[in-house]
Specification:
The protein is α/β, with parallel strands linked by helices and 128 residues long. Helix content is 38%, strand content 12%. The chain has helices at 19-30, 44-53, 68-71, 75-81, 96-110; strands at residues 6-11, 34-37, 58-62. Strands 2-1-3 form a three-stranded parallel beta sheet, sandwiched between helices. It is elongated. The mean pLDDT is 89. It binds cobalamin (B12).
Length: 128
């Protein structure tokens, strides 16, 4: 019998969004993969450690909360040092938030809703 492929799943850094990665893990398990599920709020190093310990075939990680770029600084190099291939999707496939905000804005504009120029439009993230 062919060996089951092993994958590591989870959301990285301070990201608490766990629903998508749970669904993804379930789907891969149902499809016959061996899934090591790290869940959410997982430091990047733990993905590498888990991949090495289980001789995993792939790490499938996501970041939804907008801080992925910061959380993954240096991650590519650490993966290369550990002998793991790494792939990031192009930014045009990661524009969910911008598209949603643009759509919500266009919809309000169409309904005649306006904000005053005194509006403070600074983005509020989790980090300074
Ligand atoms: C539910 C939710 C929450 C819940 C999370 C509950 C939980 N326990 O998971 C709560 C309320 C806690 C939350 C908090 C926050 N959230 Co929130 N949240 C969402 C929301 C509405 C839905 C996410 C979700 O679960 N979708 C359902 C699942 C099934 O879909 P999914 O996650 O997309 O996963 C699917 C695919 O993407 C794919 N997939 C997922 N992972 C992977 C990985 C790989 C490798 C592959 C191939 C595929 C894949 O497969 C999945 C199954 O189909 C989204 C908006 C949205 N519509 O997506 C915002 C959203 C993700 N949140 C957002 C933000 C900003 C936050 C906060 C920072 C808000 C704040 N200022 O406090 C915090 C962050 C908290 C933290 N520390 O992480 C933003 C992110 C902005 C960005 N990326 O630019 C979003 C996009 C909303 C928005 N438009 O502003 N959130």
């Amino acid at each position: 019998m062919a060996k089951k492929a092993t994958i590591i799943t989870g959301t990285v850094g301070n990201d608490a969004h766990v629903i998508g990665t749970k669904i993804l893990s379930r789907a891969f398990r149902d499809a016959g993969f061996n899934v090591v599920e790290l869940g959410c709020l997982t430091p990047p190093e733990e993905f590498i450690q888990a991949a090495q310990e289980t001789a995993a075939d792939a790490i499938l990680m996501s970041s939804l909360y907008g801080m992925g770029e910061m959380d993954l600084q240096g991650f590519k190099d650490k993966c290369r040092e550990a002998g793991l291939a790494v792939f990031f999707p192009p930014p045009e496939l990661c524009t969910d938030n911008a598209a949603m905000i643009a759509f919500a804005g266009a919809w309000r504009l169409e309904r005649g809703q306006r904000s005053l120029l005194s509006l403070r439009a600074a983005a509020a993230g989790l980090r300074p």
